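Appendix C reproduces, verbatim, an entry submitted by the partner laboratory led by Prof. M.T., so that reviewers can inspect both the input and the predicted structure.
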Amino acid sequence: MLTTFPRLLLDHAARRGQAPAMREKEYGIWQTRSWADIARMAEHIACGLHQAGLHRGEHMVIIGANRPRLYATMLAAQSLGAIPVPLYQDAVAAECVFPINNAEVRFALVEDQEQVDKMLEIRESCPQLSHIYFDDPRGLRNYDEEGLAGLDELIGAGEAFSKQHPDFYKDEIEKAQAGDVAAMFFTSGTTGNPKGVVHTHNSLIDRARAGAEFDRLSGDEDVLAYLPPAWIGQNIFSYAQWLVCGYTVNCPESSGTVNIDLKEVGPTYYFAPPRVFEGLLTSVMIRMEDAGSIKRKMFHYFMDLAKKVGPDRLDGKSIGGSNALLYWLGNLLVYGPLRNNLGMNRVRVAYTAGEAIGPDLFSFYRSIGINLKQLYGSTETAVFVCLQPDHEARADTVGVPCQGVEIKVADNGEILVKSPGLLKEYYKNPKATEEVLTADGWYHTSDAGFIDSHGHLKIIDRVKDVGRIHGGANDGAMFAPKYVENKLKFFPQIKEVVAYGDQREKVCVMINIDFDAVGNWAERQNLPYAGYTDLAQKPEVYQLIRECVEKVNADLAEDALLAGSQISRFLVLHKELDADDGELTRTNKVRRGFIAEKYQPLIDGLYGGKTEQFIETVVKFEDGRTGKVSATLKIMDAKTFAPVKAAA
């Protein structure tokens, strides 16, 4: 029975050893590794790690981008009964200390010199970290640190051991059971230290299979692995489902070449958070604004048609003969070239998750023929809780419970989940485990929502974040900050939003502009600027953002439940919110409470009726240095609208 990841690997190597398993782009050329290659690599790394002293049940940290040898090392560790722990490659050194010490990590594999430097920097704080291996040797020739070695050296030692003990590797794999721990993923740590989410082979494989069966995935799929492997979403799509389905995973050359590599690969199965889809659309709209007038008119004409009939066409509904003919022409002239330019011409299934996606953004992709759907899940649920069936994809839901999942809604509106994919526990944190897992197997998601009349789940916000307006004309009205933030983030000019209003008489927001989109707009307006801070405070930019805010208010006025959440005042921040500055998590979620403390003077200014407020902020640069950014920020009022009364 194929109950563990190493067994799945050996099965693929035995049945279809020469089929492509992974491709990696190096120096502009795609290099293919077969299933037999990956299996051989995993065996040699496992034997090398065994010789170095990695024990069954131990944790091993893996830090880097998506690379075949890093994935093979995860398989190697699992083959020995050890537990891989992927960490975010963009985390600063100090962020690695708690996970490494919490999991008592002695072994680490890192991608390159940057990650080696991090491990060496924290060694004094992590004295048990005795073995550090690196994949890419560039820049490390003159490093002479105890326990530091290249992966090539480890593989060479493992290959020699394997020849002397040909049955060792398979014997070790046979010792594993489906209920053994397969991996541990650390949460973002939005409040306090991150928690280690423990998953078994069974929980991860079961959910990977459920997702694969739902969308009829096969070994013929092509996937682009470009998101951090430490994020369970990427891990499920490019590791768990890769091993379950046997499809090909493609690793970009670097983060800077992802868009080029996306076009070259042409994935059939694609996953991205809303932020990526927003960025792709923004780049398209920027290019269209720079196009000639004839091209612009043609684009807008056919996009208006696509918006009207495209989603219905994708859902298999009739759109009429004349619309069908016009859509065919639009596909020839606009939609097809656009999908090709986005790298999505071959996409059969595309998913977005992590945050709610704006309805217009969702509709845009579906209107041009991309089968974009939403899913719902978390690190603790091994991702797959709800999925949207083909022809039932809607922007305001996250789908129906998938195979093996039960959902119920608590009295306070919290979503509870029972699933084979639930975490085993939070590592060394029984109190936190008891808080989320009930004795009878229900998991507290902390999300507020409800099941609609079609059996689809709707998520409103985090339970703890759903609040009430207190005082004023909207006293007692519901306030869902994430809902408001996501509506604003649909606009290409707006990159990030932080909304406040719980227990206050009105809603106020702080906004990050999208520097590329607004910069492009400013250039077309002949508006000079000297960097982000200067551009953000231009009166013309404030007016542009004000129009976006008031459009959102008009939409909110039509929603009886959330009409009281209209935005009364806003400001544009002088710097971009950054994970390195603690303002975002490593998965780019807003740390609302932290930001409230850090920018208290701005919140006081918003609610105190001020028209401007001075702020000075400490920032951390990429090289580790710190500095200060200061500015006097304008604060602007926005028009609100009377709630639209439903027809009798």
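The chain has a mean pLDDT of 92. Additional entries are available on request from the coordinating office.
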